């Protein structure tokens, strides 16, 4: 869905540049952005509608790098989750409260890393997925 929205954005953008659409792109998108802001959270905007959020998240599936929260150093204070504009930090409640970063939504803005009091958020190389994991993911 995110890729479709991004393609639609590009289509409207280029149609505006070519003069097919005679209205300014900002005038066209401003009411839509205001409605989204009123009815949805910032994370929804960054995940699904913001062209930059969608653009930055597309290569996340193939990126070698990921932000990772070290559970041994994490206090589970929730500061990282509160500052993440894309809502890319999920809470694991069991067996004890911990956090993890969802790579497909991460914008690599480093806001979470900057507010972490214990420096428990690290940029690490993702391990290559085994063939079994790849098969399971494609199901």
Automatic annotation (TrEMBL):
GO terms for molecular function: 4 iron, 4 sulfur cluster binding; metal ion binding. Keywords: 4Fe-4S, Iron, Iron-sulfur, Membrane, Metal-binding, Transmembrane, Transmembrane helix. Residues 65-94, 97-126 form the 4Fe-4S ferredoxin-type domain. It comes from the Bacteria. The chain crosses the membrane at residues 29-49. This is Putative electron transport protein YccM. It comes from Neomoorella thermoacetica. The gene is yccM_2.
């Amino acid at each position: 869905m995110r890729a479709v929205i991004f393609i639609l954005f590009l289509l409207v953008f280029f149609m505006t540049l070519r003069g097919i659409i005679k209205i300014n792109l900002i005038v066209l998108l401003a009411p839509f952005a205001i409605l989204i802001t009123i009815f949805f959270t910032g994370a929804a905007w960054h995940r699904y509608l913001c062209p930059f959020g969608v653009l930055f998240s597309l290569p996340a599936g193939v990126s070698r790098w990921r932000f990772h929260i070290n559970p041994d150093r994490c206090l589970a204070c929730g500061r990282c989750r509160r500052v993440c504009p894309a809502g890319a930090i999920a809470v694991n409640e069991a067996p004890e409260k911990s956090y993890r970063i969802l790579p497909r939504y991460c914008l690599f803005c480093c806001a979470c890393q900057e507010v972490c009091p214990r420096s428990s958020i690290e940029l690490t190389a993702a391990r290559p997925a085994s063939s079994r994991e790849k098969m399971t993911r494609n199901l």
